[in-house]
Fold each of these.
Amino acid sequence: MSYLIIDKVTKKFDGTVVLNEISLAVERGELVTLLGPSGCGKSTLLRCIAGLNEVDGGRILLNDRDITNLAPRKRGVGMVFQSYALFPNMTVYENVAFGLKMQGLKGNYIAARVRDMVNLVGLSGKEKSYPRELSGGQQQRVALARSMIVEPDVLLLDEPFNALDAKIRKMLQMELKNIQKKSGMTMIFVTHDQEEALTISDRIFVINEGRVAQSGKPLEIYSQPASEFVARFIGNFNVLKGEEFERLVGEPLFSGKSLAIRPEVIKLSLNGENGKGHNGSWRIKGKVVGVFLKGNILRFRVRSKDCILDVDVLNNSLDCSLNYDTSVDLVIPKDEVKVLNL
Ligand SMILES: Nc1ncnc2c1ncn2[C@@H]1O[C@H](COP(=O)(O)OP(=O)(O)OP(=O)(O)O)[C@@H](O)[C@H]1O
């Protein structure tokens, strides 16, 4: 049996269904992400697991216990929020030690545990600082240490890095993943940021309108989106109607379907260069209608017939003189055209 089981959980607010018989299972020691657009019900589900929202139907089982109707403090669930919610008048040491003190544990034991935990989150030397003396990223590390030290059965993290700038956020994502692996703690992380979910998760649950639209390892979700919603939400994909694509490649194959093609699988070359497409691919002609620099990636927007396709190439691999109105050839490998469920 899985470690955490959400079994057909329903939650309504004022008669509006926010969680619609949602079911999912998490294994012990996993870091999973609930990923979905604003308002899809991610935070509501976390709050149901934590006992901060009552459910209107279904069950929640954690570590072989039915916790559906237990008081929050009896569930073995910890939570880290976007706002750090530290005690401002306590030092880092006191903030982190707080949960163990409440349990009435001895000073020596607490000191050793706090030392290990502060070390784990990379804050050694800051024990005597107050929250106001720390950066946002450091404060969030304290919040993480404070929640982890009491060893909850599962730690819930609700968009914990949202308030941080992009660089710190990326660093903390990596660190969280390391900390989670070292500690073996089961974690559920909520985000609406696809890149964040792809970076940190063992598995992702994509949520749409209070249900799981798709679950899988990051690479599975990224390379094989199950539906048009997932393809569009995970971003980047070219999503086309079958008929549009048929006109593009001149073969009647995909009527009534919806297709997804990742921008980086399309090969782009100047007209006539690099030979022809072969049996395993389609070759089409187009014109560049947009060029976007995305750091190490250059994204070309290409119009061919009535279609617009985005094509990503490594920034060092093409002549950057390729510009608006340049005629180009695109080669699309057939096995990279994914048929989506509508
Ligand atoms: N206490 C509440 N009372 C009434 N409606 C609520 C309450 N909490 C959440 N909702 C509604 O439930 C829906 C889902 O909210 P939820 O916070 O779970 O979304 P989310 O997926 O976490 O979105 P975000 O990424 O914006 O936080 C929203 O329409 C929200 O307005």
Note: The pocket of adenosine-5'-triphosphate is lined by residues 13, 18, 36, 38-44, 192 (CB under 6 Å).
Amino acid sequence: MKKGLLIILSGPSGVGKGTVREKLFEDATLNLAYSISMTTRSPRPGEKNGREYFFVTKEEFEKKIEEGGLLEHAQFVGNYYGTPKAYVDQLLSEGKNVLLEIEVQGALQVMDKAPDALTIFLVPPTMEELEKRIRGRRTEEENIVQERLNKAAKEIATKDNYKHVVVNNTVEQAASEIAEIIKENIAQH
Ligand SMILES: Nc1ncnc2c1ncn2[C@@H]1O[C@H](COP(=O)(O)OP(=O)(O)OP(=O)(O)O)[C@@H](O)[C@H]1O
Ligand SMILES: Nc1nc2c(ncn2[C@@H]2O[C@H](COP(=O)(O)O)[C@@H](O)[C@H]2O)c(=O)[nH]1
């Protein structure tokens, strides 16, 4: 069976990666699978272990790094985040197009290891809109919101490392542009 396409969706916290990803997954023709990450951050209300993330302790995460079980990992605003490698390999070998929704340090690691990966960076229409979105989500304390916003400009400055940059004006427009990019890449894969 033909291996699936590895897809990285990156962008600053609050830009709308998760929201756009959910829209993309409504299109079954894209044959997408989501890579569930591992993190040491605490679950938000409504988040379930094994669905949004595998929520683990710092010790468990560091053991996974030592075992070589992560495709990439990074520290982001005080917590570890990483992509379990075996699951991604399994999905790719089953022919699934695997979407990694990850921050920029991890994305750069995957680009080194898998230069053929399709890489997409999502940007906000304006920095004011980014702030409005992250605050509007009401999931983080003020100090964490501030730290995430402080990182955003530096993260956006890495966007030229990605093969595609998409502005998230509306969820429908961003998802539709990304779906077209994925379809073109599937055809050439
Ligand atoms: N195009 C859009 N227009 C208006 N609001 C949006 C848009 N896209 C996403 N949002 C809203 O912005 C907030 C942040 O979106 P989301 O949680 O998807 O961001 P994210 O990039 O996945 O964040 P993180 O990296 O922190 O996980 C949510 O409340 C979401 O409903
Ligand atoms: N490098 C990685 N970054 C990841 C991974 N999973 C998620 N993320 C990114 O972390 C930030 C914060 O996420 P949040 O859920 O706490 O808001 C965000 O940019 C995610 O996309 C991963 O496995 N590796």
Note: The CA atoms of residues 30 and 124 lie 24 Å apart.
